[in-house]
Amino acid sequence: MSGGIFISGARLIDPASGRDAQGDLRIENGVIDAIGPGLSPDADDQVIEADGAVLGPALIDIGARAAEPGRSGIENLDTTIRAAAAGGVGTLVLSSSSGAGLTRPEDIDWISYRALQAPIRLLGAARTHTGAGEMAEIGLMLRAGAPLVSDGGELIADTRFLRNLLSYASAFDAWVGLTAEDLHLSDGTVAHESAMAVRLGLSARPGISQRLGVERLAALAELTGARILFERLTTADGLDAMKAARKRGLDVAASAPLTHLLFNEVDMGGLDPAYRLDPPLRSESDRQALLTAIADGLIDVIVSDHTPVALEAKANPFSDAAPGSSSLEALIPVLCTLDADGQLPLTAGLKALTSNPAELLGLPQGRLEEGAPADLVLFDPQAPNVYGKDGLESPAPSAFSGRRLQGRVLMSVVDGAMVSSRPGFAE
Amino acid sequence: MGQGEYSYTFPHRGLIAASALNRVDLELVFDSARAHLARNRTDDKKHPSLKGLTVINLFFEASTRTLASFEIAAKRLGADVVNFSAGNASLKKGESLADTANTLAAMQPDLLVVRHQSPGAADFFQRTTGISTINAGDGANEHPTQALLDLFTLSEHLGDVGGKRIAIVGDILHSRVARSNVALLSLMNADIRLCGPASLLPADADRWGASVFHSVEAAIEGCDAVMVLRLQRERMSAGLIPSAREYAAIYGLDHTRLSLANQDCIVMHPGPMNRGIEINSALADDTDISVILDQVEAGVAVRMAVLELLAGRGMQEMVP
Lengths: 427, 320
Known about the structure:
heterodimer, A: alpha/beta, Urease, subunit C, domain 1, eight-stranded mixed sheet, six-stranded parallel sheet, B: five-stranded parallel sheet, four-stranded parallel sheet, 13 helices, 14% strand, Dihydroorotase (chain A), Metal-dep_hydrolase_composite (chain A)
């Protein structure tokens, strides 16, 4: 047996336990063997000098889209996986709207098969439905390894069907990720309803569309006993409704997309299609509410909401451009930037991308703990980063392109193996 | 044994709901059914206790086996039998149900056997016409003769059903068979378990006096009998469950799953079966375990007993 990996002189951050201290960490046989200050490497260990960089659990992104299966696009799955590894993601849960949709157990089997060769942990969410009023094979997909069920961003309008679906899913004790919007208020809109959107002449949805969505789903959670994950909450209105649902003791959770932590509607004021996102960018007060909700735990997880949109689909006027942004490689820079600006403590941001999603889905990774899987990310939180200037793995258009951020991933480790490292680092 | 020995006269004008029956009623039915069952196996099946009476089978919902079972039962008892069924034009002429009832009543039948898609339909016929009516299934409400024949079959195999663990697996929500069975099994103090996809279980099923399970493995554990219900195809198109293959994989009964039950556990099905969906074909045909054809046979005998009792021509009147 060859030696382990010894990372010395790191700032160890473990969001689960709240640890944030200088120290060393040793990996052996795919697990964290020892953590603490003043450790010494074994004779045949590979020693990596962290030089004060942050060492935390590798990120767990439970909401990233791939262009496959069943379709092709600007990036193939291998590229998406490389982008994830470069972004510090150790566990990637593909959205059920990936490719032509993860609607059958065969699709989940395909992901398991691809996961065998992937350097990172790869999973896929099971789609809730195959068509209007047609339930997907949720049970078989969960048995095949899907960690959750999700509508993949496609709002289920039929409340009776949704009730049946939630009842059915409740027997499997799985989280059901659902889009919280009012169908008629949100359908066909491209912007958040505000003075700005109106002035720009954009079709817009009010914040209460999300509130109505959350309230509707919360009522159904109460009726059916299902565990609902409100996917991609972005408004203060929606968060108020979420808070009320929690207060009622319902088993609900919420995620927020990365883009909405950094950007607001002013960023789309120039009608740059790069900021055409779904849900649309919201007001600054919504963004502030979102950051507060992450810091105080009302929002459980941050998702990249990575969406590889073809260049030609983006090359359109704002309203006609396809929504979405390549975001996997922006996760760490956004967290570092928000921390440096005093907007969101790094530990809180990391928690929503490590131990919280791990706990939600019952995964053993996502914490710095002796005996835990050695899934780690080492990053320099201070390094200036003009997003995309030094190249990215993902070729898809990104809302972050050219943005001055800070923070850079130096190395990603999954299952004890280095899966990505910044050129020149630890070589 | 005749009715007289109980010092008890079957007090029901019709058989609308299994939940209206008491334990003495059941003994009366089953004692008589046992005699009919034995006679039905001989080559002299005729027992003309209903001679001179007319029975109308009125089936607004398609049925082959239940209709045949009632028809054979009435004919073996010597009654004149007329069948109206769903395919029959006379039931499709837009006449109101009350008019249909009164028209038929004017022909002076003595017993009506009614199957209809609406809960309360059999009771409606009985109240409208004043004629003794047997409910052969009213929507998802009740199917009392099915529950009687199921309990009869259970008793023949298990003896006293009290304390026995019996699971009903499948679409409980839409099942009149489940509702009637729960009524009779509760009366007998059986340990009843209901199991199915949560979207096919009533929200308050735990208040039916049964324990509720979503895992078929957990439900079957330690069972003395498992009743498998038919899965209607329209449940898939109605968005209540995903697919036949998922249902088979997660809720379907086969030998492997059944090994979690007691060693002598029997398997029942009200028919018609979807082989390979709710029940594995090999299990359905395993005569050491499956009593499905016993149920069908018992059906005729139990219906004969019910017809006689309702006509007031139970066994004692036949004994000189």
